[in-house]
Model the fold of this input.
Amino acid sequence: MWRESRWAMLLLLGSLALASAQFNKAREHTSHHVTRLRHSRHLQGNTPNIYTASFAGTSPKLAVKDNHKPLFTECLTYRPTVQEEQPQGTYVFTVHAEDRDPPEMGGTVTYKFVSTPGEKERFHVDPETGRITTADVFDRDEPSREKEAYITVRASDNGQPQLDDACTIKIVIEDINDNQPVFDKVSYSESVPQDLPSGREVMRISATDIDDGNNSIVHYSLDTNSPDQAYFYIDPDNGVIFLNKTIDKVPGYKFKLSAIVKDMGEPPQQSSITLDIQVVESNKKSPSFIEVPDGPIRLKENYADFNAHIATVRAVSNIPEEKKLLFELVMGQTEQTNKWHTFVLESEADTAYIKLGNHLDFEKITDYTLTVRVQNNYNLAAETIIQIEVEDVNDNIPIFSEVRSGSVLENEPPGTPVMQVRAFDADGTSVNNQVTYELADPSDPFSIDSITGNITTLKEFDREEQKYYNIKIIATDNSESALIPGKHNTGQQVFRIEIADKNDNPPHFTQDTYIAESIAENANINVLVTQVATVDKDSASNVSFSIVAGNTYDAFVISPITGEIRVNNKLDYENITSYSLDVRAFDGLYEDYAKVIINIENLNDNPPIFVANYSKTIEEEKLYEGCMVKVEAYDPDIKDRNAPQNIHYSLVKHEQKEFLKIDDDGCLRLTKPLDRDPPTGYSTWQVLIVAADQGGKLGSDSLRSTTEVILQLTDINDNAPFLTNTEPVIWYENEPPGEVVTLTAKDYDSKENGPPFTFALNDSASSLDIRSKFQIQGNKLWTLVSFDREERKEYRIPVAITDSGTPRMTGVSILHVVIGDKNDNPMAPGHSNIFVYNYRGEAPDTEIGRVYVLDPDDWDLPDKRFMWLPSYEQRSPYFDVHSNTGMITMKTGTPNGTYMLKFNVTEQNEPIVPFHWVEATVNVTIKEIPEEAVDKSGSIRFINVTAEEFIVDEGDGTSKKDKLHHRLAKLYNTSLDNVDVFTVFNKPTVKDAFLDVRFSAHGSPYYPPEKLDSMVTTIQEELEKELNARIYMINIDECMVEKVECEDSCRNVLMKNNVPLSVYTNTSSFVGVSARVEPECTCEVESRIVCLNGGTPFADKCECPEGLTGPRCEQTSIGFHGDGWAMYPPPPACHEGHMTLTVTSHTSNSLVFYLGPLKYNPLLDVQDFLSLELVDGFPILLVNYGSGTTRLNNSVVHVADGKPHLIEIVLMKSSIEMFVDRCKLSTCMSLAAPIAPREILNVNGPLQLGGATIDFRHLAHQFGWQHIPTNQHFVGCISNFTYNDYYYNLGEPSVHRKADPGCQLSVSTAVTFGIDTNFLVAILVCIAILVILLLAVVVHRRRADAWAEKELDDIRENIIAYEDEGGGEGDAGYDLHVLRQMYDGPPPDQDGTFMHAPGVVGAAPDISGFLDDKKSVLDRDPDINPYDDVRHYAYEGDGNTSGSLSSLASCTDDGDLKFNYLSTFGPRFRKLADMYGEPEDDRAPHEESWC
Done:
């Protein structure tokens, strides 16, 4: 009764109080919104749900300066609920707090959660409306058991200081029927005696629903569809199954039943399970329990005796003389049915004991239902249920909520509410979870309500005396602790209570007068001028600043918060030189004033003004002395016009400075006569002149203005007229004499010196051929005779045109007259040749050329028709011909070969040419060219040669293309079949007409382009003479000339496609590969990973064989011994280049590498090169961007010491750097600037390592280089050569001489240095003895070898062992390079300058490549067996075209049976050469004719 009256009193007090008296400063809680879950039982029982206490009392309406705090007036009444499993964003309820202040003065309330950092956000509150929604999905059931959640919402106003209130609210999570009932067992199996009386219990089933309320109540039933259902019935409440009628089944029979359990929720959920009940003999009885607990067993949740018997059960087996029983504690599928083994069972004979297996927790599980099963030897069982109830104990300590601070205004009377504290006890019953509060220190000037936790003041506070208090609150629960015997559980928390400030002191400016000096009159808008400041003892007062006087034209604006004064409008010193502003500071109650003086600075802000406009008329092409025009301007900033104006005059247009100049007196003079006439002259010249004050000095604030001077030019007759008949005029043959064309002309002079014009044949047309056939009458050209086009196709007639000027001028123009063709001649049979390169065999349908017949007429195509011979039905399946044009089309998929096409051509042009027909033949050769040939091709760019001129036969019966083909085969010492000139196309430019030609050559592999191009360079002059054509460039490079194609970086990209490029002439046509170089304005391009040297790609890198250390399995080192070199592709032209290499040198003076031209080219203004050499052991770098050579030397680090040294070279537009061994100190770093104006290294010559193939002195003399690279060769090892992180594969140079890939020999040489001589001699003697023994064994075994019985050269049976898998393909792995004739002689006809250093090695006959080609032909032969076996090659005549190796006749035509080239293969092929080759007398040296 006392407790109820006490709670009633508290409720009364709560209704009279200022609701929710607690508040905090929002800025102290910046963490995101988080809620913390509480257990549902912590306020269970008679305790009312009080969340925020209220204090009685009313007060009169306060002024704004009192700054009321927001209040949750309905905090006690909130009872929010939300159903479980609802999606995020589900609405829960809305909180609201009242604040009596105006919205703009502290009355605007915002809401946020009070939480601890890191907690998960479960709800969301709208900061403006207080609307609360879910931010998570809740689950009331196992395993989460989220039955309720607690949130603390803070309401904060916008006053100064900011005041808060907080409200803690419990949100109940309502259950929904979202879980099906779960049976305690996965399956049920029982036995029943055959004579069991009806009505007796058979078995028990049990199910649990983890939902709450009606959703958890379950009812049982048997499925009526079960065939044996009639034998049994079930109690719907407890799941006991009884026998319904006498069993009439034989022992062993199994009843099949299905049981259903359904909950009482809406909508209901259900589950079903199959029951197996087996019939046993009548004498078999199931066991029965004789002792079980009478009622539920009650255990306190802190019960922890794991050895004590909680419950005892006894049973009898009902088997005579057999007492053995098997007890089992059935594990259910929920926690309440012992899913997690909270209880365990121990058995002994006919007794079983229940013990504790895990700790109990009333707050998790309040009761358990245990099923004990006993089974006898008949496998018959019985079950009983034991109920265990868990009792709550006081084992939880009260925990305070997240609110940790509060505040109260100073000068408030005692009893003013401060805040409410809340502590929660997680115990499950009201006996243990009721909390009371008390102050730890009774001397604190505050009091706390022991029930509600509301804190109030005991005195009036002064903030200036103390700003805050820390008070400790103790929360105690209401029963004896299970943790600390004899005491209650307590929790404590220290709370910080701040004393909030009131505005009771005026603000004061820090200065009476502020002065801002030298504010420029052209200051930008919003530029800071000065800042005023105040001091105020009150921390809560907000001082607002304003300008109240002196702000003329609103020139300035002041920030009301910071006091910053800024420019608001344009200032003008000429208008106002100084401002005096009155500034006010106001905090809402008190104010103060200060003076601000702003002085304006005069600036040069007016440009010069010209006094007049200027014009002048002069005669063209005349140079005038003195001033043509004198201009004048003055500076308005200088008030005295008679004072020096300090004006600087200049011309604006740069192109006019060639003809005009002006001085600072304004005198405009001619330096060169002006031209009035087009195309470079103008009748009116506009000269723009700029006047700059303050002398126009750079870096000054000089102002400028412009004026124009108009120069009118009078004309003189200084231009001869010219014909405007620029297009050819057609006059048909066989026409009678008549008028050809009306002549028209133009003169760049004025009309007074121009028309009318007179026309006449020029004196240069004095030849009888012109004057006897043409005449001019007035402005008409007439013919005097009838023309025959077959005699002459065109005439170029010089026409003299005279103007009417003074003096008269005459010009000569050429009139092009074409004699038009008429079909007046019969045709005759013709023959033409067409050669087609089919790129990768993928060419689409392609027009390859026209059918040619011999006909003097060449405009008569419309009169001709073209048909196949002997008939259309017998035409070639690979070609089509257009019947009207005679154009031949090669179809897609046309195989390699030579095709003779025959056509019937008819012509008719009655009555001049009667109907007739002739036969025409076209020889078409198709050759497939692989992609490797194009990728590794060399290239030449010719100038002023057309593609038609390049392929047409000349007087000697061969074309320029044929001559180039033969010359290249001779140069590379290989057969014509191994050389392909496959691309010919015109590349016209604005200035020149270029012809680009690409070619390839191969032995076994295709030769790299560096080898092809460098060798062509050696015969350039001879090639130009032989072809009668000028070479513009070898190795076509579109990036060669700087800034033509790209502003910065530039790289060449070979663009290829399978659409051929065709060149047509009458008797020959050429269809080549479309392969052209295009510039790409970048330096680095991402490309797919290609692993070299047998490496395997893995993810984004390569797995490399041992010894290959490059990122793409490159061989990263190469050695030289003083007489070798190696060539590699040049790097692209990059605006920034970073080159690194490691040098191990054994000589002090040598060339490390050279990158630059191989030959002087007078047609290209390009001399760029880069070289690194060693001089006295120190590195010297020479760099030439094309404007001059820069020399960098390092005299600190000695490199020629036999040790590896890292050299880094950085090439940039404005600087060149060289570092040795990563030393970045100024003493060992080399830095220089390149010679302007060129900025990028552009080279198309190869990168040469270890030495060079050219004479640098001769080359430097031609280019005019100031510094000359050395020709001394390198001794040592070069490794890890990179350019912009690209690793060079040094182990595979494009071409080399006496190089050592991998530095194997170099290392061997290096390791001998420093070894004792005697020790070295001993090692060499041991090695010699081992070599002698090895040779003896080898000689002995060779004598015993059966091969000795055969002639060494007779090796035709050598492939008989290749009958295993792979024998007929490229994977056979045989190496025939040992049969190759070694050839170290220099190429023929070497240029002397090129061969100053050791020459390029010529190409030897390649037997390996020859046999590979032969094998590939056989692989493609459709008549050969399609399986992987070459045993047929070992025997004569086995039914295939390959025959045997003794014949080598694997081609199909007679020409292939000539084996004259065998003599070039060396002595091992002497017998074959004698058997199949030509006689010695008929043999041409080094000629090859391979298939």
